[in-house]
Amino acid sequence: MNQEQLMALLEAYRTGAAPAEAVLAQFQKQPFEDAGFVKIDTHRDVRQGVGEVIFGQNKTPEQIREIALRMMDAGRDNILISRLSAEAAAALQDIPGMEYHALPRVGIVNRKPPKHPHGHIAVVSAGTADMAVCEEAALTAEVLGNRVTRIYDVGVAGLHRLLARLDQLLAARVLIVVAGMEGALPSVVGGLVSSPVIAVPTSVGYGAAFGGLAALLSMLNSCASGVSVVNLDHGVGAAYQATRINRMGECR
Fold first, then answer.
1. Between vectors from CA 168 to CA 213 and to CA 163, what angle results, nearest 5°?
2. Where does residue 217 rank: exposed (0-12), middle (13-18), buried (19+ CB within 10 A)?
3. 136 and which of 30, 113, 229, 235 could share a cystine (Cβ 3.0–4.6 Å)?
């Protein structure tokens, strides 16, 4: 049972539409479900407002299917599967409501549109080579209930492309800025906007980029205020952080 369902049950109890036993039954359940090879955190949505993500890398299709079906049985929708290979996704098409996005390697099960979007996130990329990480962030943010604007291929090699989208940058409540190579874009964006900037370094670039380490260090050393940094290629983590920021106050 997710947070919204639990609140609906409590409201039904308050109005007399649901007996106390129905409410107590939910709280008497274990906060996780032990499936042998995995312990599914069924209360994460209640504790944190967002549910557990299935990390698909190094899991077999059978394991992913079992986890997803158990989550659905527990009342979860908008189930995210990250780092899901195309081969594994092909083997999971029998899961009801399964959709697959090949570029970011993201699966979404039982997707439902948000009733009340939390706020406006802009996902900004330096180059097309960063788009897989951008789409992981954008899809995750949408599934978590945010309005998302995509602003792609606006890196510092052609700064006029970024400035042409300045109105959209300023309208966002949170910005996720994704870049590889020298990782300069988050600092530039951070100097233009008043909203928080979440920088995502990607493992894109020639040899001296050291698989994204150069971009990571550049972002950590940003001179622009209000820039935070997540791990390499971690679009999911950036989207979760942006969602928590959006839920803290009124949305634009």
1. 70
2. middle
3. 235
Kindly tell me the sign of the dihedral angle through the C-alpha atoms of 178, 68, 86, 36: positive
What count of other Cβ atoms lies within 10 Å of the Cβ of residue 191?
14
Tracing tokens 């908008």 back to the chain, one arrives at: 78
Cβ atoms within 10 A of the Cβ of 234, count?
21
The per-residue pLDDT for range 41-79, each reduced to its tens digit, is 666 676 666 778 899 999 999 999 999 988 888 778 889
Q: For residues 52 and 80, what is the distance between their CA atoms, to the nearest angstrom?
A: 8
Dump the DSSP string for 38-96.
-EEETTHHHHHSS-PPEE-TT--HHHHHHHHHHHHHTT--SEEEES--HHHHHTTTTST
Which pair of structure tokens corresponds to residue 30? 């274990």
Q: What is the dihedral of CA 233, 234, 235, 236, to 10 degrees?
A: 150
- Cα distances from 196 to residues 52, 61, 88, 122, 223, in angstroms, run 25, 37, 36, 11, 14
Cα–Cα distance for residue pair 42/199, rounded to 1 Å: 30
Q: What is the pLDDT of residues 26-41, one digit of tens each?
A: 665 666 666 666 766 6
